[in-house]
Amino acid sequence: MRPTVHQQLARTAFVATTATFLAACGGSDYYLPQLSAATPGTLISCTDLANKAALTNTTISSATLVAAGGLAVTGVTTPMPEHCLVKGEMNRRTSTVDGKTYAIGFEMRLPTAWNGRYFYQANGGIDGSVVTATGPNSGGAPETNALQMGFAVLSSDAGHSSPTPFWGVDPQARLDYGYQAVGSLTPMAKALIKTAYGKAPDRSYFGGCSNGGRHALVAAARYSDQYDGILAGAPGFHLPKAATAQLWKVQQYASIATSTVATGADAGLPDITSAVSSAEFKLVGSQITTKCDALDGLTDGIVSDVKACQTAFNIQTDVPTCTGARDGTCLTSAQKNVLANIYAGPKNSKNEALYANFYADPGIAGVNHTVWHYGNSLTRDPGAVAFIFTSPPSTQAAFEASTGLKYALAFNMETDYTKMFATDATYKESSWSFMTPPNETDLSALKNRGAKLLVYHGSADPIFSAADTAKWFDALQTANNGSSADFARYFVVPGMNHCSGGPATDQFDSLTNLVNWVEKGQAPDALVAKARGTGANVVNTELPTTWTAARTRPLCAYPKVARYNGSGDVESAASFSCK
Question: Which pLDDT score, from 0 to 100, does residue 30 have?
């Protein structure tokens, strides 16, 4: 007997109420769809693609067949497969603001033996060059990549052909960099794939680290209908704030610098590298290890319980205070105060947070930490803030008449900071708007179609705060009634600096885990990560000498951490559990 209309309505109401109850109790979103697996294909067209493909506002400049092994990739010993290399550009135009010519440059590499999948390779920094489209699969010196795995891979310059920031004067170049280049490239790439293989990709993936991680989280919000799996590494999804925080760090270090720049345009200004020496950063890192190493159940040189360490470690009491000259075995009171400020995060005169705090982590001793705090803060960040993240932007003449150090020291965290939210008749969308996800905790469109998001971040990242990413993930969990793990997972890499490096097991394959989650329903509870010791494809020279070259560890899905089981080989991931 068929149910009556009233019975059907009652049944529907019961199912809806049950789903709501389970979600409220942190239950699983059991009703999320399971996406099917991709099916392979074979390249049927390469050198004639320029004539065959009907692509809007697109010019293909070349399409050539690359023999197997014809492309060498650092660290990847397995030969790259035979593939078609396509180069071109989209949306060529002349700016009405600066009179310069712009286009979205790209390359695609289409393997002859195709796995049915497409990978959008989101690149780092301020883009500006079309790097080789291989699809790195995350972590330090990956042993494989998307191209070697059989993906069709795209790489682009995000709408400008210069790695210098002066293109930020053009409003459309800003929007392309922020998100619109992805919107233009995605349908083009899929159409080209269909022409090359006779079918569109069955599954589409998006991945990158740093600014590439920002691109990934923006894509998760803006282009969730186009991508089935999104891989976001060290996501700088609050990049304008992080960049201005870099300038604030310069000001902090300058306040305790013990020497001045000797020559050049900055002569007489504080030499920020004299604020805290390499030996002193190593001292702090060793004291953090001493205080926090055992919190995860094993003294092994890895601080896995990063959050517990933030309470356990106090720079004021756990690092010796100098009573005489600085010799690398102590810090002065002024140094302690500055480092405490930097790790608490920038604040304005009202004590309002202007970016996130950073974790106290042994990776503070990493080379990459110094590169960002003492190098990029005086070069990359001043230019990015001046031309891309403030409206209106600086002029090239004014910027080049100054220096990065002078710009950073003069930057006002009260008045200049607010320019990232500003608009005017020319710059109609603020940098905060075009750089960030429009609603970073609403990923319902991605979730409801069965797509997945995998995020990883080094706990010792010196530019994009892993604490900021954790705060976002906590908010995402709240927005999804405790069930966000059904479609999004976050993995902290203890000790890792920005995207790789530091005293960390930083080599892992998150792309394979993401594909298995998307297409097989195998949600990753942990990623197995390796230390890159002697004999690795690319050796990490920052590993402690007490570690074996082959050390492995599980990277646990947040908020769990890897804890020693109490027995077994301490160098093996199998001896640890996520708890």
Answer: 57
